[in-house]
Design brief:
- 2 copies of one chain form a homodimer.
- Chain A is α+β, with helices and mostly antiparallel strands.
- Chain A folds into 2 domains: 180 residues, Beta-Lactamase; 55 residues, Arc Repressor Mutant, subunit A (Orthogonal Bundle), CATH 1.10.10.10.
- Helices cover 51% and strands 12% of the residues of chain A.
- In chain A, strand 4 and strand 5 form a beta hairpin.
- The structure holds a DNA duplex.
Chain lengths: 260, 260
DNA sequence: ATTCAATCTCCCGATTTTTCGGGACTGGTT
DNA sequence: AACCAGTCCCGAAAAATCGGGAGATTGAAT
């Protein structure tokens, strides 16, 4: 079996989502899983979130058409958790044999019907270069006897976690890069000669401006006069080639010059 | 040397922050590091963030009294990254040899002065059970020759990453539990990502504002009166709970409501 | 020791822009 | 009928922008 650092190395050399998908499929088959998928779990109200995976088409379409994203107990847990878990460990409100089945219950039942006896889910929370936060859910699907799964997991749980973290990261990077290339937002500024450098104070006033503070507020916070804040702000806006405070703040954020 | 799963096992049995601290100190000494710390890196405007670590008291006080939290390039990188890195790989705005030193440069210089030759930083982004998102920065400090560090890292980088993830998680869990006991249960807030819906026009005016356009500019572009643009802007700012145009634009970007 | 450039600090006055509180009319949808 | 999105207006107060100027401090280079 492939070692963890070999697996991660293989993942990190991938340059397309297709390649990435095949690489991971190879790795997890090694461990005994049948397929996997990874989806953006950030927003419960989106019907068809971002998705990559190798699970059979009929399972994907069942999942989507039944709106399981909204009720899947695994996805719900992923949003509030950081530790990997098995399907078997998720507590689904017991079906009492009477009344209506809960959405969570239906989801798990449908997975069983598709031959998935167990699954290993890895939550991954991450920030993009703008500092925006996302959550993703990755699942490995198991079709063999559960007993074998238990044995595997007792020994390889951390390996799987680590591999999935690096895989998810790589997937995000590739998608983000494609998006950047399509939109052409952030080129140009790579040349160190033209690179913009703000002073500490300029960054300070921009950061506070980004948080909605007025000049007067910022002056109070930084313990300097309003005139000084205005001066820093003017210099920063000029350096950034922006046309006003709002534009300056947005540019600074996109260039990674300030955090908010 | 302790195996990874043993280390993680040891971490997961800890029940107090003190115990946790000692456990990790033992583990990293095994790897050759001198000390470590972990701090909340959520936002750059907090003076004394949550902190646990074993770094010498004089380094901690230097770090705090100089306000390095605000300018530390490692912390800045952690906020927008998910992959571990070494201090040596952080690009500090080159010191041009003239004028003042930037805060980032001063921070790295001070670390050197305290005998830290290298460091390994692990970002960790996580959600608590209420769905709130945090970022933490963990650093392992190295005082031996750098060459030995490079060698260690080439072989143990993933082990260190994994250990730190589980450690950070355990630290958060313990602190959260103590906090709950003291303060009672905090109510979960609505996820702002799903709660706010802007109308098409509101998004339009915000997008143009993000590009630096004034109300008059936007009115010309959208072919509507200035009054209308103002109205849309006011509504958008109110919906976003922002305090002015700049704040509104920043919030909208972070919530993924507008693209620029 | 001197010079130099960058940074940080502060002020003035005039103009432009934003912000805030109202209100009002239209055209769809539910 | 009620609601929402979109459109438009008024007036006054608050804030930002612009283009100057100017002294203090700092760290590096000659």
């Amino acid at each position: 079996m492939m070692k963890v650092d070999e697996a991660v190395g293989a993942i990190e050399t991938c340059s397309s989502t297709e390649e990435l998908k095949n690489t991971l499929q190879g790795i997890i088959e090694d461990y005994g899983f049948s397929s996997f998928n990874m989806l953006d779990a950030g927003n419960p109200h989106v019907d068809v979130p971002f998705y990559i995976g190798t699970t059979p088409e009929n399972w994907v379409s069942t999942y989507i058409s039944n709106g399981f994203v909204h009720v899947d107990p695994c996805v719900a847990r992923v949003r509030r958790s950081n530790t990997p878990f098995s399907w078997g460990d998720v507590d689904v409100p017991k079906y009492e044999g009477t009344g209506r089945k809960s959405g969570a219950w239906k989801t798990m039942e449908a997975a069983q019907d598709h031959g998935f006896r167990e699954g290993f889910v890895v939550p991954f929370h991450y920030t993009d270069p703008l500092g925006r936060v996302y959550s993703s859910s990755s699942a490995f699907y198991w079709t063999d006897p559960v007993k074998k799964y238990r044995f595997l997991l007792s020994r390889k749980r951390y390996d799987l976690h680590l591999i999935m973290i690096y895989w998810a990261q790589r997937a995000i990077d590739i998608v983000a890069e494609q998006h950047r290339n399509r939109q052409g937002i952030l080129e140009a500024q790579q040349d160190p000669r033209t690179a913009i450098t703000l002073t500490d104070r300029e960054r300070d006033v921009l950061s506070w401006a980004a948080r909605g503070k007025t000049v007067a507020d910022t002056a109070g916070i930084l313990f300097i006069s309003e005139s000084t804040v205005e001066t820093h702000l003017r210099h920063a806006i000029a350096k950034l080639g922006a046309s006003n405070k709002t534009h300056g703040v947005v540019k600074a954020i996109y260039l990674g010059l300030i955090d908010v």
